[in-house]
Design goal:
Two copies of one chain form a homodimer.
Chain A (H helix, E strand, L loop, with lengths): L10 E5 H14 L15 H9 L4 E4 L2 H10 L4 E4 L6 H8 L6 E6 L2 H10 L3 E5 L14 H10 L3 E7 L10 H22 L3 E4 L13 E2 L9 H4 L9 E10 L9 E3 L18 E6 L4 E5 L10 E4 L4 H5 L4 E6 L2 E7 L6
Parallel strand pairs in A: 1-14, 2-3, 3-4, 4-5, 5-6, 6-7, 7-8
Antiparallel strand pairs in A: 1-9, 9-10, 9-13, 10-12, 11-12, 14-15
Chain lengths: 340, 340
């Protein structure tokens, strides 16, 4: 039996039971095509296949490489690039897989429409700004842009809009009201655009959506500590395993230990990671220095599970994930959708 | 001629002229073996070869993969793992390249000494804690640990100690005094240990060192915005190129643009990146949203140079770097020392 004690570290761990719980819980709440899982959260076709096994056939991607990688792996019947690109070579690469899978590309300007059409992309969604200052056209321009797209020969499949600014609103009633106002904008745009798809949302707001055709949640699969504070029914399923490589002497003025999980193995944009029963002092490129709370410090060679503050960028730093049940290692999944 | 307008984005850029300036400036200040350049800052054997061409033959590494990768590339006469590891397979991999290059491994405990000896490592440095709560034995235990190492058959080549907590001390006289106190600890340990090597320092403190045999600076090659504020004679040589993929309408209530350089392409532990002439609002996984200061917003498809707040982890997120002179692309270097 292989255990976590046999793994080279730092090692990305996916907890099989927590992952199963998360996937089945979401599939019960938003079954089948009412969820379009976002693969940017894990960049792993094996995990996407597990989501497909729960009944979801349509997937969301953030990069062309994610779209092409999913297509090559044969996972998903429909792949949405929920992002804009002007890269002719990457648009052509996505167009080249359209015979094996439905590919839909988001557009929010005449320029992105022209790029998609020139590359032979068949289907687009009109990306609408519903409050987050990022991509998306103004709602009242969506109809005009849909006309431009249709004139260019593109099949306009509907609209999408991402209310990322509302993911962390903690009061449920407040969040529901704000999401409703954002969805009002999206539905108004949809009135102008038409098409079967109204796509929105994420893990932070999936419970607040009852008027869209699909939700683009991704983080629910592995979960983030920040989402975990908001009362979601999902469990932390992702850690980075480290080895204790140095322990301060018992008579040292400050008692701390060091594990080999540094900021090159952790998404740091949400701050420092955490370790159960310990206080993290700081991260260096290849180290995390931490003190124990009440318990004694770990010993040299002990394994510690480090919980990243942000999962998406953490996963993208690793070549593969080890699937574990307790301390047993049961599989290894490549993080095969990395890069752009 | 290939220019930055031909590159897929996000694209890691190394500015050839700034890099040349940085390498020659440091080589003038600390020539030859008085500098042991740290490859963790760039993870690129081609850049290490450029440092070797400036006269530096000895290199510092943070991971076993960096050591083995440098050995396989044939760059450097001596490779120091300035870090502790208990990984028997990785220690063995480093031991396996000892016939082609001098390999020295840091140790700070009886456990790390035993691991190195068991794997057939020949040479070690005693890693001494000189004030940064991370790895390193107490200075007064260094002699005892050296005895343990020699008893295990290891060649003890000297001492190292990293005063990472002093890199950002802004007052030069204050920094010099604090570095002197840290080096006092290292020299006291060296008295107990012996050996030819006294290794310490980094880009933040290289000017404050006159009693060590070598300085382990790395960031000077590509430079960090944080170091740049401290009056160092080095230039920013690393950016991440992005393409503007969305621009808010001219009559929008808020005027902003979006480029495809997100937090999966940027080391974020020092905070948001910067863009000359613009204010960065926030980063998402694959986007940076920014407003223009006085100048007009860029147009769709324009290229923007994004300056990461921390270079080391940024470089580690990219598969290769494009070497540029102005807007011309003159070479591509693999970031071939990524991972562990």
């Amino acid at each position: 039996m292989t255990t976590i004690h046999d793994l080279p570290t730092p090692a990305l761990l996916f907890d099989a039971d927590a992952l199963d719980h998360n996937l089945s819980t979401m599939a019960a709440a938003r079954p089948g095509d009412s969820l379009r899982p976002h693969v940017k959260a894990h960049k792993c076709t094996a995990l996407a296949a597990a989501q497909q096994a729960e009944g979801h056939r349509h997937f969301t991607c953030a990069t062309p490489r994610e779209v092409v990688g999913m297509a090559m792996a044969g996972v998903g019947d429909s792949l949405l690039l929920a992002n804009e690109t002007l890269d002719a070579a990457r648009l052509a690469a996505m167009a080249a897989v359209q015979d094996r899978v439905d590919v839909i590309v988001a557009v929010d300007s005449a320029g992105t429409v022209a790029g998609a059409a020139a590359a032979g992309i068949r289907s687009v969604l009109i990306d609408v700004n519903i409050g987050l200052p990022r991509c998306g056209c103004p709602p009242d321009e969506a109809g005009r842009l849909a006309d431009v797209a249709r004139h260019a020969g593109l099949d306009v499949r509907g609209v999408m809009g991402y209310e990322g600014h509302l993911m962390m609103v903690t009061d449920h009633a407040d969040q529901r009201a704000k999401v409703a106002a954002a969805v009002d904008l999206l539905l108004a745009a949809h009135q102008l655009v038409g098409g079967a798809i109204i796509s929105s949302g994420g893990t932070g707001t999936y419970r607040a959506h009852d008027r869209v055709t699909e939700v683009q949640a991704g983080s629910y699969a592995l979960m983030d500590t920040q989402y975990a504070q908001h009362g979601h029914p999902f469990r932390q399923a992702c850690h980075v395993l480290g080895t204790v490589i140095s322990v301060a002497a018992a008579d040292a003025p400050a008692r701390f230990a060091v594990a080999d999980v540094g900021l090159k193995a952790l998404g740091m944009d949400h701050g420092n990671p955490s370790i159960d029963g310990a206080r993290v002092w700081f991260c260096s490129d290849e180290h995390v220095t931490f003190a124990a709370d009440a318990a004694p410090l770990p010993a040299l060679g002990d394994r510690v599970r480090v919980t990243p503050a942000h999962i998406d960028p953490t996963v993208a730093m690793h070549e593969h994930a080890w699937i574990v049940r307790g301390d047993e290692v049961i599989d290894r999944w490549p993080i095969d959708l990395r890069g752009w």
